[in-house]
Structure formats: C-alpha cells, structure tokens
Q: What sequence folds into this?
C-alpha cells in the first residue's frame, strides 16, 4: 500500500479522493504599473460639490441671459410669445431676417452664446 493504491473487489466501485495542501502563504503578486490612482471618497465628493456649484452658477447665468434676450425680443415682437397668435406666422415671415440678426448680434444674444459652451462643457456635452 505504499503507492497509495488499494485493490477494489469485483462488483464494487472505486472512488478517487484528492486534496490540495498549502503549507505556507504564497508570495504576494506584484502590483502592475497603472495611470490610475486611489483617492479617498471625501476628496472625490468635495470635487463633485465644487463642480456642482460651478454648474449651478453657469446654469443661473444661462437662465438670466435667456430671460434678458427673450424680454428684449418680445418687447420688439410680442406676438412671438404665442405660436397660435393670428399674427405669429406673418410676423415671423415678414421680420425673419431682422429677428435672426437680433438673435446673433444683440449684446444679450452674444452673452448667452458665450455662456452656453461653458455650461455644455461642464455637463460633458462638448462645446458645440
């Protein structure tokens, strides 16, 4: 029986039992080089709060710019506030070039266009 084998009588089924034995702890695997780094969650949370504050401020500026622009636009063309107004289509058709010029050249429009790319970048939408 020195080789670990046992005779199995005729008509019986043999079973094989194996086991692994570890006599000592293996050496730790080396940590691979990586551009990633560990940060504490409090640092990540602090940065997220900073970015949220910046985004909220940018959103507020964008809303202010929109209100300024729409206020001036509607002071000049009040019917543009209601697409169902009987004069809406005629006003838009008659004054479309002047309206387009206003939306690109008025200081309120230019300020709004300057603020929009910053807001989109902060939201992760690129700058277009």
A:
């Amino acid at each position: 029986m020195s080789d670990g084998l046992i005779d199995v009588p005729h008509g019986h089924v043999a079973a094989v039992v194996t086991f692994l034995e570890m006599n000592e702890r293996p050496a730790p695997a080396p940590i691979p080089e990586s551009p990633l780094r560990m940060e504490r969650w409090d640092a990540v949370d602090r940065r997220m709060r900073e970015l949220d504050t910046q985004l909220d401020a940018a959103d507020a500026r964008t809303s202010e710019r929109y209100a300024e622009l729409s206020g001036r636009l509607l002071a000049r063309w009040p019917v543009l506030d209601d697409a169902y107004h009987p004069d809406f289509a005629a006003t838009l058709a008659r004054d479309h070039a002047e309206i387009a010029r206003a939306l690109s050249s008025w200081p309120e429009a230019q300020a709004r266009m300057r603020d929009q790319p910053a807001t989109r970048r902060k939201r992760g939408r690129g700058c277009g």
Q: What stands out?
A: The CA atoms of residues 62 and 73 lie 16 Å apart. The chain has three helices and no strands.
